[in-house]
Amino acid sequence: MEINLIIRELLAKHDYISLPGIGSFTQTYEPAFPSADGKSFIPPKQVISFDTSRTFNDEAIENYLCDKMGITHAEAANMLKVYVDKVNYNLDKGRPVVFENVGELFKNKKGRLKFEQAQDNDTALATYGLKPIEVEQVSSKKVGKLKEIKTSAKNDSNSKTSSVKILVVFSAILGVAAISAVFVFFPEFHFWEKYLNKNQVAINSNSDSLNKLAGNKEQAVPVNSTLSKKDSIQEKVDKSITDKNVKKAALYYGEPKVQEGKTYYIIVGSFGKIENAQKLVDKYKERGYNPEIIKGNNMFRVSISRTTDKNKSLFELNKFKTDNPSESAWILGI
Asked: Is 248 helix (H, G, I), strand (E, B) or coil?
């Protein structure tokens, strides 16, 4: 198994991968920031560098070899030592060492170790699929228009406040009308009639008494007090409230166009022997995936997804890592 081919896969899971005695690959996060000319906004990205001060062995490569090849830790350590000796030999001879999808390690004219990140380091992974955003310069005319828009919005707000006040007053009037209708149309609420009937009885009683005392044989004329009832009027009130949706302007980010003629694979394992790759294929088939073996550079890689849409591949990779945080995976573009 070529160790330089598995560095990319290991960096998908670890932030540091060491080459004992030489240094370590490090993966760091750079937040978004404005460009020097102020005309664009650089998106956030992951940056791979090489730290020559971190020369101790973190055993990440050895553990990977043990897991993927089924060998002992001593055998893995021996393989790593042979590889590191080969890297040192090439560097001393002035030959650059290339790490697939990671970068190139070399020595400059002064003999200092340098690292250059790969130019085609799968942009969708390095920058999360984002492109630099162009910043439009605002002219004085546009500033004036913005002020007019703000003023118009303020007037709309005042108009809405006035509409609310009118609606409250209208609701109060409607409530009074409803209460009045209850007293008019429901006799059981006519409390004043009971009061008037009591007074009518008392008046009639007094009138009879006076007629008897005066010896008047004529029948006392009862005083009848009738309450006039108003004709019922059917009032229909239509109440409609229209909610106005305030549309706010938003900035939309355009996704980068899919690069034609390129296929993206989500790789979950790399092996030197096809038998070991087939074992991993069987394992993922049992889990419901549709894996396949991709051959290249004397390696047999196991892929669980294939698509020509880089953004879709990135989405599926993030979902796989979320569902399987303990498993390593990375994107290979061919």
From this structure: coil
Question: H/E element holding 185?
Answer: helix 140-185
Decide if 46 is inside a domain: yes
**Looking at the domain assignment, is residue 153 inside a domain?**
no
Residue 303 and residue 269 in contact, taking contact as beta carbons nearer than 8 Å: no
Instruction: Please choose, from the candidates 334, 295, 294, 327, the residue with its C-alpha nearest in 3D space to the C-alpha of residue 313.
Output: 334
Beta-carbon contacts of residue 250 (< 8 Å; ≥ 6 apart): none
> Cα separation of 273 and 295, whole Å?
10
Here the CATH number for the domain that contains residue 288 is 3.30.70.1070
- In a domain, residue 180? The reply is no
**Distance separating alpha carbons of residues 225 and 125, to the nearest angstrom:** 95
What single string gives the DSSP state of each residue in 121-170?
S-HHHHSTT--PEEPPPPPHHHHHHHHHHHHHHHHHHHHHHHHHHHHHHH
Structure-block tokens of residue 332: 């290979």
Number of folded domains that form the chain: 2
User: Residue holding tokens 């006076």?
Assistant: 210
| Residue-range definition of the domain harbouring residue 309 | 261-334
User: Which residue reads 């003999």 in tokens?
Assistant: 111
Average pLDDT for the chain: 74
- In tens, the pLDDT along 49-66 reads 999 999 999 888 988 888
169-225 pLDDT per residue, tens: 677 777 767 676 655 566 665 555 655 555 555 555 555 554 554 444 444 444 444
Domain termination residue (choose one: 136, 166, 184): 136
